[in-house]
Amino acid sequence: MACASRGRGVITVNGFSSSGNCHKVRLLLEQLGRPYRWVETDSSTGATRTPGYLAKNPNGKVPMLELDDGRVLVESNAILCWLAEGTPYLPADAWQRAQALSWMFFEQYSHEPYIAVARFICGWTPADSPRRADLPRLRERSHDALRVMERHLQSHDWFTGDAYGIADIALFAYTDVAPHGGVSLDDYPAMRRWLSRVRATPGFVAMVDPDARAAALIAHSS
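Request: output the structure for the sequence above.
Response:
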């Protein structure tokens, strides 16, 4: 991890490495070169529902960012905005900033609820789970969102304005792993080029694969 303190204390992030919402925060911190401490918090096994965690975040979700002075910030895109303030990752121009925020709202309302949930059902529920009956609808809605993104990317390189930034980070996290939920990216050539551009940005780190993460945890405990 690159660490340039810039006179600020270490940030603590409670996050689940296989979560796209958590990876957004890790990716931006790495690309900013800000020091941070990562506390692996497996929301799929109830780690966010303990009394101690709920006292800090009553919504019981990850990621959760904590500062040395005790302040807490939740919701992945709010965290991205705070971290990016005053940096090239968030446009200074009011119109461009509003455009970036519009894509981040799109990500949370029209993109993540379908692509991320399809991935979760495929990767974290048993084969006979009744939730799998939702997959056709989730995949259909996922493609609705991807078509909107593809149309934008046919004439723009980025979602944050003229340069890469937090709207791209927000949309990249779950788009890159959409195939995990059975959502193919084959029909979106402009999007695939954009994904490659994001991966080529300085300081980029990939999301931990769920299988690789499980293997690492087993090895660490043996």
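The mean pLDDT is 92.
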